[in-house]
Amino acid sequence: MCVCVCVCTCMCKCCDRYMESYKMAIARIIAFILFCSSICHVPSLAVILRTTDKIVWANEFEPIELTCLIESISTNNPRIEWKKIKNGIPSYVYFQNRISGDLEHRAQLREPANILIFNATRTDTAEYRCEVAAIDDQRHFDEILINLAVRVRPVVPRCSVPDAVTVGTSSELRCLENEGFPAAQYRWFHNNEELPLDPKTSPRLINSSYTINQDTGSLKFRRVKKDDAGEYYCQAKNDAGHAQCPPQKMEVYDIDIVGIFLKSLAAFVAFICITVGICHAHKHGCFSSKDHSDNNYKTPGHEHGVVYGDPDEGHFRHKSSFVI
């Protein structure tokens, strides 16, 4: 009987210890679950934004979408705004649930907070800021910046090609285009064949002395050769497209025919000017020599050597004797 009582007492003590350990384990598990739950719920208490591209390129007159993705938010109907920042001055693009500013009628807001521009123009190049405010989140505000650059196709460049040059002299051909964005790179063509940047890479042009500046559009000949004669045109190109000027012909002469003609023309013009000047001066009496002095008046001589005196004297005198 005593043995049974002892055994029961020991079993009860063991059960109590087991239950206490079990309760402690359950409490630890519940604490761990609560801890994990609190960690997992932190992001939902903050509004967080991201974008697929912070630097966006677009071609002019083509559509482009600026992405403003909401990764985390717990507030319903958050306030969404877009601003355009150009030259440091911000202006509204999306405000009070409507598109405004210079994008009005050219853009729309797409879920969740993206801006779609239907036809981008060069004036849309700027920095754009997406702002989201969520009043029910612990972190209730976030923003993201996106740089938009609109590429503009070059227009027809202005080309300058001399009509004629002399063998052995230097010459320069120019090409300029200032509408495209980013700035265009220039290429030159001779008789419909592109000129390589280094003439030594072409067996046909290995003796040529030209240099090409792709940034300025200059084609310079250090010494012109007869083979350099022909038609030239320039092409301006960037990532948005290209444009070229009409071909222009350059002739190469052994002697300076143009220089001789211009010098002869200048001499002829100078001769005409001098002749006209002399005629004009003569017409206005610049070359006449009339003596208007009355003191040197002489009475004309008369026959027989008689010189008449002053009529007031009433007689005449013989200045020489008569010959009988």
Automatic annotation (TrEMBL):
It holds the Pfam family Ig_3. The chain crosses the membrane at residues 26-49, 257-278. The lineage of its organism: Eukaryota, Metazoa, Chordata, Craniata, Vertebrata. Keywords: Membrane, Transmembrane, Transmembrane helix. Coiled coil: none annotated. One of its GO terms (biological process) is cell migration. Residues 43-142, 154-251 form the Ig-like domain. It comes from Gadus morhua (Atlantic cod). GO terms for molecular function: cell-cell adhesion mediator activity; integrin binding; protein heterodimerization activity; protein homodimerization activity. InterPro entries: Ig-like_dom, Ig-like_dom_sf, Ig-like_fold, Ig_sub, Ig_sub2, JAM-C. GO terms for cellular component: bicellular tight junction; cell-cell contact zone; plasma membrane; protein complex involved in cell adhesion. This is Junctional adhesion molecule 3.
